[in-house]
Amino acid sequence: MISGLDGPAQASVAVRTATLAALRTALLLLAGLSALAALLLLPVVPAAAGTREWVVGGSSGPLTDGALSGLAVSESATMAGLTLQRAILWSYTRPDVPLFGPFAAQPLANGNVLITDRDNAAVIEVNRAKTIVWSYTQRDDPRLISPNSAERLANGNTLIVDRRADRVFEVTRAKRVVWEYGAHADSLSPGSLVDPYSATRLANGDTLITDNRGGTRVIEVRSTDYDVSAPDLGYTPSSIVWRYGRDDDAGTGDGQLSSPRRASRLDNGNTLIVDAADQEFFGNRVIEVDPSGSVVWRFDGQALSPPVTPSDALRVDDGSTLVVAEEGGGAIYDVDRAGRVRASYSSQALFADGSSAAKLRTLLSTSRGTLVISDQGNQRVFEVGYPEYGTVTSPTLDLGLPGVKKAIGRMEMVVDKPEGTAATIEYSLDGGSWKSPNAGGGLPAGTTAVTVRYRVTLSTTDQGISPVLRELRIAWDLVPPSTTTTSAAPTTTTHRAGATGTRVPTTTPRVTAGSGTGGESPSSAKTAAPAVPPPQETTPPATVASGPDERFASGSVLQPSATLAPSGVEGRPGQEGWGVVLGVLAVPFVAGVVAVGLGGIRSPSRLIPRVTRRNRAPV
Question: How far apart are CA 439 and CA 417, in angstroms?
Answer without folding.
Answer: 18
